Amino acid sequence: MTALQTTLFALAATTAMAQTPVPKIKVACVGDSITAGSGAPAGSSYPAQLGRALGDGFDVRNFGMSGSTLLRNGDKPYDHQPQHAAMLAMKADIYVIKLGTNDTKPHNWAKKEEFKPSAFALLDAIHEASPAAKVFMCLPVPAFPSNFGITDEVIRTEVIPQLKEIAAERKLPVIDLYHVLEGHPELVPDKVHPNAEGYRLISEAVRDAIAPVSAGK
User: Fold this and answer.
1) pLDDT tens digits, residue range 144-172?
2) CATH homologous superfamily of domain 24-215?
């Protein structure tokens, strides 16, 4: 091969590599109606706003299911919903879990001894589907002070401490969404579901948490 042929071959290889699309970083948003985007116009959910903020290098999908519980023996267990199978099938690079709000309803929280085992089962399923995935545990947003049987006192004094323990045991980073909306009842019109501005603040908190991880991927 002549020097010219070698140069042309190298140039062609470099051009081909430049044209090869870079795989997008896959982000799965797991949760209940607050992940689904209830209470705000279409396109305002936090996963939708997160996807726009992160840009073309990311594939952000919304696997929120209204009414779902982290509790496997709750009235609407997340792991019984089609979103559970779909988020596992995605084999995402990053999972953002925001569950626990519906678990505070009295008939669900009566089974609170199953809360941590249910969380570990969800984490184990994600790890089995995507062993290298980075998982973030969100603390639920506040209620102002209650609606739909959901109470802020249980969120704050019982659910959040357990989620922190779960995250610590599995060495997972925590995204404190309670703090993001704390003191802002005007952003949560029905006392439980944020409006578009509330979802924007949530999306920014999630973006700021996952950006350093995704940059190092």
Assistant:
1) 999 999 999 999 999 999 999 999 999 99
2) SGNH hydrolase (3.40.50.1110)
210: nearest Cα among 135, 143, 127: 135
Rg (CA), the chain: 20
Residue 192 DSSP SS3: coil
Q: Are 141 and 188 a contacting pair, CB within 8 Å?
A: yes
C-alpha–C-alpha distance, residues 16 and 19, integer Å = 5
Tokens 């603390």 belong to: 139
Domain map (residue ranges) of the chain: 24-215
The secondary structure of residue 153, as a DSSP letter, is H
Other CB atoms within a 10 A radius of the CB of residue 95 amount to 27
pTM: 0.89
Nearest to 122 by CA among 77, 67, 162, 187: 77
The count of other CB atoms within 10 Å of the CB of residue 178 is 18
Q: What is the rounded distance in angstroms from the CA atom of residue 33 to the CA atom of residue 45? A: 10
- Whole-Å CA distances, 189 to 128, 152, 173: 39, 15, 29
